[in-house]
Specification:
Structural class: mainly alpha
Number of strands: 3
Radius of gyration: 20 Å
Helix content: 55-70%
Largest sheet: 3 strands, antiparallel
Number of helices: 4
Order of helices and strands: HEEHHEH
Oligomer: single chain
């Protein structure tokens, strides 16, 4: 019974991941069609704009022009995330792994199909590289799961201290 539930949850996670990847790819098509070769579109003055960019590297354009290396690394990471996704327990971990998987897959599709990742979100209030929806998914997923794991560690430590104190009474 528990294994069948695990497979159902995993299947739902894969379907949601696929939907998020589809959304990411659709937004990138819109960015190519409406932003490529054009001036930035200011969405909120001094805050955020839409601006077309092609990124051959990773975050902050690190490893630029190393598309094959990044693609292989991303594929290996996606396999690891998929395995973790299957075994992860807890809604927060499940949601985070779906975000990380979908974001990584969305950018991997770009690298395989075009040799670069399409970016289009530009911050105006800080000098920051142009990014995309897939990047947001990965970053949010990673930060929330790290926060959750830290919370879990603190909670376990408090429980151990409580049990130790109760045992000494």
């Amino acid at each position: 019974m528990k294994n069948s539930r695990k497979f159902i949850v995993f299947a739902v996670e894969i379907v949601i991941s696929a939907a998020l990847v589809g959304l990411d790819q659709w937004i990138k098509v819109l960015a190519v069609d409406n932003l490529m070769g054009k001036e930035s579109i200011i969405l909120i003055k001094n805050f955020i704009a839409l601006s077309y960019a092609e990124n051959t590297g990773a975050a902050f354009s690190a490893f630029s022009d190393s598309t094959m290396l990044l693609s292989v690394f991303t594929l290996i990471m996606l396999i690891g995330v998929a395995v973790y996704m299957f075994f992860a327990d807890g809604r927060i971990k499940n949601i985070c792994t779906v975000c990380i998987f979908a974001g990584g897959a969305g950018n991997l599709i770009d690298r395989f199909a075009q040799g670069y990742v399409v970016d289009y979100i530009k911050t105006l209030f800080i000098d920051f590289p142009v990014f995309n929806f897939a990047d947001i998914l990965v970053v949010v997923g990673v930060f929330v799961v790290i926060g959750y794991l830290i919370y879990d560690i603190i909670k376990e430590e408090k429980q151990k201290k409580k049990e130790k104190a109760d045992g000494n009474s």
